[in-house]
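ARCHIVE CARD
CATEGORY: sequence design from structure
SOURCE FIELD: tokenized fold
FIELD CONTENT:
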């Protein structure tokens, strides 16, 4: 079993499904199931809360009793069953209920794959960035292919694509995995010293977690309002908007492909400082120069604003934490930095967007500037 290839394959197929869910799930609920935008907003808003609860509590607890391989298999199987149960559902209450059930299992696959990655990296024979780049590549391909299929077959193809991709993931999970991922946690692994609460007692961990919450949360306006900003405010042709938004992912891919070679020996604080500075520059640039070319140039900074911050956190927990704590750390990161912070800051960004669109992006510096300040004030004391 080639560990690098196994991890790359799993990142690839997961992010193929993630492209469907992240970009098209609301469109499927409105276009194929006939829900209103307000009904979809309610469903997706509550699903973020369920997703946060699942990744913060359900996933870490399950990881203490199941091996990484069995946990991933359980999550894929449950997600596949849940998505199949969507087929006969058409009413708002039924779709709401199914989405909450789906959100209990499917989003936890993200920290599950990341947890397997950090475990394999700790063994010293896997390059994280190289394998993670396959996930970004898959995301781009997935979004592009599905946009073409929707044009031919309509929004109903979104659900069938998710079913097909989860079936492929199910088959991959049924195949042999690296031996370390099949190791069942011991009673000692479930001891109090490896609890989620004990994570906060690890020197430097609370500081790093606060920093990544601020940096990843600051992407909320970008994820939620970029499309309408380009379309309505900058009046960019719809055909070009997809190309412009994909520039960010292309630079994300380039970063992950080169990260292990260029940044493996960097301190986590240095990576986070560069990420914070790049993110701040990005939002200021969009506000000061409100035109399409400035927005395109700002897209190159996604390699810092998202990818470097993410890489820094993975690097930190891989270096500092024992294997027994990796799932807890991934669960917290997924829940707080990738879910709840984005949900809260989306509301903040929306209020600013109503005042003037560019302000929604500039407002994100309220979180990136404090992140930079925290790094500068604490990096010597905590030596991270």
């Amino acid at each position: 079993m080639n560990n690098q290839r196994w991890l790359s394959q799993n990142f690839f197929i997961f992010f193929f499904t993630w492209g469907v869910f992240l970009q098209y799930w609301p469109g499927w609920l409105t276009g194929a199931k006939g829900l209103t935008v307000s009904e979809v907003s309610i469903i997706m808003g509550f699903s973020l809360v369920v997703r946060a609860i699942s990744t913060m509590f359900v996933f870490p607890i399950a990881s203490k009793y199941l091996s990484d391989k069995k946990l991933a298999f359980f999550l894929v199987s449950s997600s596949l069953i849940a998505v199949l149960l969507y087929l006969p559902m058409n009413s708002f209450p039924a779709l709401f209920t199914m989405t909450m059930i789906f959100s209990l299992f499917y989003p936890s696959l993200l920290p599950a794959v990341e947890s397997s990655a950090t475990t394999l990296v700790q063994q010293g024979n896997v390059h994280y960035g190289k394998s993670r780049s396959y996930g970004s590549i898959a995301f781009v391909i997935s979004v592009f292919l599905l946009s073409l299929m929707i044009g031919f077959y309509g929004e109903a193809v979104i659900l069938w694509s998710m079913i097909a991709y989860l079936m492929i993931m199910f088959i991959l999970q049924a195949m042999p995995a690296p031996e370390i991922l099949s190791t069942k946690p011991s009673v000692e692994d479930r001891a109090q010293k490896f609890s989620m609460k004990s994570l906060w007692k690890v020197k430097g961990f609370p500081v790093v977690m606060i920093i990544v919450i601020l940096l990843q949360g600051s992407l909320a306006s970008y994820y939620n309002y970029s499309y309408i900003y380009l379309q309505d405010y900058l009046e960019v042709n719809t055909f070009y908007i997809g190309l412009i938004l994909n520039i960010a992912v292309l630079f994300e891919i380039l970063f992950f492909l080169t990260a292990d070679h260029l940044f493996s020996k960097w301190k986590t604080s240095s990576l986070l400082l560069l990420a914070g500075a790049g993110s701040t520059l990005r939002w200021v640039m969009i506000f000061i120069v409100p035109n399409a070319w400035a927005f395109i140039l700002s897209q190159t900074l996604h390699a810092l604003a998202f990818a470097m911050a993410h890489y820094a956190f993975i690097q930190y927990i891989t270096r500092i934490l024992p294997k027994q704590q990796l799932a807890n750390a991934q669960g917290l990161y997924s829940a707080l930095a990738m879910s709840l912070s984005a949900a809260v800051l989306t509301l903040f960004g929306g209020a600013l967007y109503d005042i003037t669109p560019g302000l929604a992006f500039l407002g994100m510096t309220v979180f990136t500037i404090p992140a930079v300040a925290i790094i500068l004030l604490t990096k010597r004391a905590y030596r991270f």
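CARD ANNOTATION: The chain has a mean pLDDT of 86. Residues 187-384 form a domain with the Growth Hormone; Chain: A; fold (CATH 1.20.1250.20).
SHELF: design records, drawer C
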